[in-house]
Design goal:
Length: 436
């Protein structure tokens, strides 16, 4: 097998192994346990018999899967609400389902938010609210904080935020201050109840309160942060008039902070994150005979800067070993124009790298653990030193595909698109760079 093809195959295998090891099932096996009426979540114990009502609110790309895995332990007595942007072939008994939108909210997102707020508002001091939160929840559950904001205005705002090139924590800081459910406001709705949040994180390790825009956690961001972020990324003119006017009047309302009474009986536990996928990928690469380094120093960097940084790290490592591999977790940012074709940040990153490694024995895979990259049906793509040559032989104009943000058709034709379908999980992106 030619070296290039062998490395592309190895990169795929490493990514798929990481997906398997970073599963919801394995995370719950490690951190959640139920026996004789007592639910253990990491270091906490909850005797369900002591609560007059227990409700489970699950939302995000892993909403159905998280509730399903919990139900295997607790049984069918658990009930509540599931808001998931992915369709599932069956529904769990006892749950109301909402097919919330992604990457932008839809009518179901609003209905989900209203149903959740109504349910939480009916809890008392003897109630227990269990929140199962995963990435994608920002769009799957949404209701404007300002009644004057219509859903189309929020959708336009989300598009401007997502395409701005800003890091996810900054994007979610703005979302929090426009929402009736984000930035701790869902916890406020359940202020009388005991609360525990089980988190499958797709955000930086230091910014857990940006996961799904932090609906059950004290908000570490402020309205002043929002005004600064919008100014720094020149977003204001891309916002609809109603949202632009809120910023111009500096009329955003502050979110609840650590001293809010809603958090007195609240706990939050991360059971799965990008770190799990990174470690699993590194172990798989080592089994392939690579000297491995994990490096997420470029998290939330612009894709060009991240590509040069990681390729330089790879070449430096390769200078001292026969087979080198860099595992990089987190996300890169891409400012997407309105005229963009079919692709996503991972495929755009991979195609950029393809142009920088032409002729070298290097392979680069970049893919999302949710199985979805931008507006394409792929999770990401793998490129190597032969990508440009193979693309030209297939009659593909690499520069045109790259400049048009239209990377998916190119990788699909080369057989190098990574297509897993929606995984029912989301722990950020993973990049695998390897060199002989």
């Amino acid at each position: 097998m030619p070296i290039a093809h062998s490395m592309r195959a190895a990169a795929r295998e490493i990514f798929l192994h990481a997906l398997s090891e970073a599963s919801i099932e394995k995370a719950f096996e490690r951190h959640v346990h139920y026996e004789r009426g007592v639910l253990r979540v990491c270091d906490d114990l909850y005797d369900l018999s002591l609560h007059n009502r227990t409700v489970c609110i699950s939302f995000g790309k892993a909403a159905h899967r998280m509730a399903e895995v919990l139900a295997r332990q607790v049984g069918t007595s658990m009930a509540g609400i599931i808001a998931d942007p992915n369709q599932h072939p069956y529904q769990l008994p006892g749950y109301r389902y909402f097919n919330g939108g992604h990457p932008h909210p839809n009518e179901e997102s609003v209905r989900a938010a209203e149903a959740i707020l109504k349910t939480l508002g009916g809890l008392n001091a003897q109630s227990l609210a269990i929140f199962l939160i995963s990435g994608g929840g920002s769009a799957a559950v949404e209701k404007p904080a300002d009644s004057e904001l219509a859903l189309p205005d929020l959708v336009s705002t989300y598009k401007a935020l997502v395409n701005s090139g800003a890091p996810i924590a900054q994007i979610n800081a703005v979302r929090k201050h426009l929402s009736a459910v984000k930035g701790g406001r869902m916890a406020q709705a359940a202020r009388d109840a005991q609360q525990v949040s089980i988190l499958v994180s797709d955000v930086p390790e230091h910014a857990l309160d940006s996961l799904s825009s932090g609906p059950t956690m004290p908000d570490s961001t402020t309205v002043e942060d929002c005004y600064r972020i919008v100014h720094e990324h020149n977003m204001l003119l891309d916002f609809p008039a109603s949202v632009r006017e809120l910023f111009e009047r500096r009329a955003l309302e502050e979110t609840p902070k650590h001293d809010d009474p809603a958090f007195l009986r609240s706990r939050w536990w991360k059971v799965l994150s990008n770190e799990t996928a990174e470690k699993a990928a590194a172990e798989a690469a080592a089994r392939h005979g690579f000297a491995v380094e994990i490096d997420h120093g470029c998290d939330d960097w612009n894709y060009e800067r991240a590509a040069h940084y990681l390729l330089d790290r790879l070449r430096l490592l390769r200078s001292s070993v026969a087979r080198a591999c860099i595992i990089s977790g987190g996300e890169v940012t891409v400012k997407v124009p309105p005229s963009a074709g079919i692709g996503g940040r991972n495929q755009h990153f991979a195609l950029y790298c393809a142009q920088k490694i032409a002729g070298e024995n290097i392979a680069v895979l970049s893919a999302g653990t949710d199985g979805i990259d931008g507006v394409s049906p792929a999770a990401g793509a793998v490129a190597d030193g032969t990508t440009l040559e193979r693309a030209q032989a297939a009659g593909l104009d690499v520069a045109a595909h790259f400049n048009g943000f239209n990377s998916f058709p190119l990788f699909e034709k080369l057989g190098d698109a990574i297509q897993t379908g929606p995984t029912g999980n989301n722990v950020r992106d993973l990049r695998v760079l390897m060199a002989y």
